Amino acid sequence: MEISAIVEERSKYLNLLDLVGEEIELKGVVFKVRGLSGFAFILVNAYGTIIQTVYTGEIGETGVKEGCSVVIKGKVSEAKLKDAFVEPKSCEVQINEINVVSSPKELLPFDITKKKLDIGNDLKFDLRYLSMRHPKEKAIFRIQSSLVQGIRSFLIENKFVEIRSPKIVAEGAEGGANIFSMDYFGQKAYLTQSPQFYKEFCVGVFDRVFEIAPVFRAEKHNTNRHINEYTSIDFEFGQIDSFYDILNMEAAMLKHAFEHLKKDVPYELDLLQVEVPDIKTIPALKFWEVKEIIKKEYKIDPKDSFDLAPIEEIKISDYVKKKYDSEFVFITHYPTAKRPFYAMDDAEDPELTVSFDLIFRGVEITTGGQRIHDFDQLVAKMSGRGMNPADFEFFTNAHKYGLPPHGGLGLGLERLTQRLLNVDNIKSATMFPRDMTRLTP
Amino acid sequence: MEISAIVEERSKYLNLLDLVGEEIELKGVVFKVRGLSGFAFILVNAYGTIIQTVYTGEIGETGVKEGCSVVIKGKVSEAKLKDAFVEPKSCEVQINEINVVSSPKELLPFDITKKKLDIGNDLKFDLRYLSMRHPKEKAIFRIQSSLVQGIRSFLIENKFVEIRSPKIVAEGAEGGANIFSMDYFGQKAYLTQSPQFYKEFCVGVFDRVFEIAPVFRAEKHNTNRHINEYTSIDFEFGQIDSFYDILNMEAAMLKHAFEHLKKDVPYELDLLQVEVPDIKTIPALKFWEVKEIIKKEYKIDPKDSFDLAPIEEIKISDYVKKKYDSEFVFITHYPTAKRPFYAMDDAEDPELTVSFDLIFRGVEITTGGQRIHDFDQLVAKMSGRGMNPADFEFFTNAHKYGLPPHGGLGLGLERLTQRLLNVDNIKSATMFPRDMTRLTP
Q1: pLDDT surpasses 70 at B13
Q2: What is the mean pLDDT of residues B266-274?
Q3: Alpha-carbon distance B366 to B378, whole Å?
Q4: Which residues in B9-39 are b (16+ Cβ under 10 Å) and which e?
Q5: Do A69 and B402 touch (CB under 8 A)?
Q6: Tens digits of per-residue pLDDT, B64-120?
Q7: Confidence (pLDDT) at A341
């Protein structure tokens, strides 16, 4: 037989509003049945939303129950619906015929039709494949998918090429103990902490590159802002005039992604009552300036003088929100001591780097900066730190044979999602979270 | 300071043809310098292609050499260029001013300006970060990036939601010994072989889902069609009427992706002389029918009666090319014995499954099929195979609480790229390949 290469346009059933008065066929999964005397409302999960259908007759006789897959033939009619989960609210489907295609063995162990899924985080994650069926849980990941799409379309429009770096590596990019190791056919190997080295290689090839892929950190933290496997949105690009070009690119990327969200997933944003920031400009403050502000305005003075404590990130967000009406703030010129060996030092003060973090609603979501492109400068900085440049020859070779001035960043997708949707825990913004004790589902 | 959220439109310099007679600024990396008496041609890698610029004066005095990053100010003028790598060929830039922004320490250890990079595969992979700078190597991955984009845009238009399954897992989806293991905070964990279980979970949530992400196979094969870390393009969707819906979706997806390629990367396709198939329909033959054809037409009868040997895949491709003028062929109804426990058996013959492979130019690039959605049927099949369904409760729970009839597939990106571009080895179609002995770069 011959398989056609044309698929039916699925979206034709999406806009029921255009189909009022017409006979349609609807396939979906029964979300909720409200049986009344002689008729029933059947809410059906179909094509991305929950559609109200109306059955005339005794529903008990049809075998239709929650979790069934059904094929409905019916007529679209106008209606005024109130159920928060139903979309569209101005029409419904009058059922002429309903057939059950598959039936669950059991009804769900919790009620996914309630306004809020209140089963606690442990059970929610243990039964993620079921708890995600709640419309508000589902909405989190529908928004996340759209967010990634918005980011990707911005990068592609701006001539970034998508790269694919290996996840099994011989060296960690960040160093330290926070790295998972494994046996690779008798060799010791690691799971990548960051595509940093590969991004820089690829700047030498494509000039502008990005990757949105998993990275792994064996951090022994079990907090509401840590997971051990996360999605890193990485970009890196050459021909920069200053490291501020990187901040500018990120601001534009987020602005574009947020505008994409508003067009793509209004139903889900509304369901979760998400306030999507309207980015105009983002203030950038220098690290030492931030330290001063926090000390002066909030009377807080944590001991670590080379990094910001979580409380400082919260306070500077608060400050910037009041002073600049911005939910984002770039913090620049982090001390050299706390930045990796490939970070470019500030030409005016070698104790500082031309690097930055981006703080969004009190949490750091991005680390980035300009990188050293000159071979001699890189080797000197490595030697100065007691590293042996020969161990990193596979990396420094890219510099030896020429790289343009470049920089980039890594943005944590789950943290961005968490802050955007204002959910309690980064794990709640992760489809299948991994933490120190959680390896399933 | 305030960071703007608007970026300069980079594409304005892409179409030099529109800028003839105008003064422009060009930033890029010097690809080749051809110094002549009193003037020089400088080919510059800029914004995705190689642009010819002309310098009047003694180039030796400027410090410009191959691998330098430069900023050029000049005027676009008409020209007729022949260099295969240069694009556009009908104009060039007359340099008024050229400034060197960064310089390599050394010139590349091989010539990337030659028509073909003939350094052998070992060196090519050892120095991948340099060998990819050759325009033809670079073109492979520029095309691959575009291919992924074409596939993704098809899936998103067709309402598939992008999911993110974990790469560190407690159970392999394929079972067997071909799985990498690791220590996860004192627990034994594995690297995912396939997102299969997670895709099926997510069909119960979103109905249509996809993921394009790395998977890992600890296969001890070192052939030209195996790598140990590859990119799997996975989709899965519900509400199917028959398993042929899945084949139809894949045919449409590939058709869309190939049409996208032709629009997006004509320069690279031309450089590699790629013949992009024009998909109309794709023939589908049943497994036993294929075995008969090969025996009869090619006098080949390999011993494995439940699977196709590589030679059989080559022969059936040849047959289909002649008979149907198609470079693709679906092979359906593989024997139950060789398919995983979650594969749906054929209602007419339980020795067969409603599953398929897709063969492209002699190589299997996809495995897919309809999955069992009914809980009792799944548990019975597992028990019949001597598996303990309780060990897979986290998977079968999704079925217990209701899944629609569904199916999907996994398509190997690198194999697809290799066959499309007709390169010698799957590793040549992998940016940073991993095989039994290769763990770097």
Answers
A1: no
A2: 96
A3: 23
A4: ebeebbebeebeeeeeebbbbbbbbeeeeee
A5: yes
A6: 999 999 999 999 999 999 999 999 999 999 999 999 999 999 999 999 999 999 999
A7: 96
Which member of B218, B229, B397 has the closest CB to residue A129? B397
CA B308 to chain centre: 23
Shortest distance, CA B164 to any CA of chain A (angstroms): 7
Would you state the pLDDT for residue B305?
82
Q: Where are the beta strands (DSSP E) in A37-129?
A: 39-46, 49-56, 69-78, 91-102
Instruction: Say whether pLDDT at A174 is over 80.
Output: no
Closest CB from B3, B402, B405 relative to A248 = B3
For residue B133, which amino acid is it? R
Can the peptide bond before residue A441 be classed as cis, meaning omega within 30 degrees of 0?
yes
- Please name the residue that has the structure tokens 């059950």: A100
Is the CB of residue B154 less than 8 Å from the CB of residue B147? no
User: What residue type is assigned to position A395 of the chain?
Assistant: F
Q: Which residues of A touch B29 (CB under 8 A)?
A: 204, 207, 238, 402, 404
Contact between B237 and B207 under an 8 Å Cβ cutoff? The reply is yes
* Cβ neighbours of B207 in A, within 8 Å: 28-29, 45-48
pLDDT score recorded for residue A278 = 96
Cα-based distances in Å from A171 to A213, A331, A336, A392, B183: 18, 29, 22, 9, 18
Q: Rounded to whole angstroms, how far apart are CA atoms B403 and B204?
A: 5
Number of Cβ atoms within 10 Å of the Cβ of A113? 18
* Whether the Cβ atoms of residue B92 and residue B77 lie closer than 8 Å to each other: yes
pLDDT digits (tens, 9 = 90+) for B16-67: 888 999 999 999 999 999 999 999 999 999 988 899 999 999 998 899 999 9
CA distance A318 to B188: 43
Give ipTM to 2 decimals: 0.97
Strand partners, A307: none
Per-residue tokens: A30: 């029964």
| Joined tokens for residue B298 | 């090619």
In chain A, the domains with their CATH numbers are: 10-102 (2.40.50.140), 135-429 (3.30.930.10)
A202: nearest CA partner in chain B: B129
Give the C-alpha separation, A404 to A369, whole Å: 14
Q: Provide φ and ψ at A3, rounded to 5°.
A: -95, 125
Instruction: Average the pLDDT over each of A192-196, A235-239, B132-136, B219-223 and give the range with the smallest value.
Output: B219-223
Is the Cβ–Cβ distance between A83 and A114 less than 8 Å? no
- The pLDDT score that the predictor gives to residue B357 is 98
Contact call for residues A103 and A65 (beta carbons, < 8 A): yes
Altogether, the residues listed in chain A come to a count of: 441
Rounded CA-CA distance B419/B406 in Å is: 29
Which segment of A265-279, A330-344, B157-171, B174-188 scores lowest on mean pLDDT? B174-188
Residue B337 sits at φ, ψ, to 5 deg, of: -55, -30
Chains A and B form CB pairs within 8 A to the count of 345
At residue B125, the 3 state secondary structure works out as: helix
For chain A, the farthest-separated pair of C-alpha atoms sits apart, in whole angstroms, at 83
Stretch B421-441: mean pLDDT: 96
The CA–CA distances, whole Å, from A281 to A312, A327, B6 equal 22, 10, 9
- Report which residue type is found at B141: F
B221 vs B350, more confident: B350
pLDDT above 80 (res A144): yes
Give the nearest partner residue to A101 out of B168, B404, B436, using CB atoms: B404
Nearest residue in A to B104, CA atom:
A402
Name the nearest CA neighbour of B374 among B341, B333, B337, B402: B402
- B70 vs B61: CA distance, rounded Å: 15
- At how many degrees (to 10) do helices B310-324 and B287-298 cross? 90
DSSP B95: E
Mean pLDDT of A42-52: 93
For residue B370, give the 3-state DSSP assignment: strand
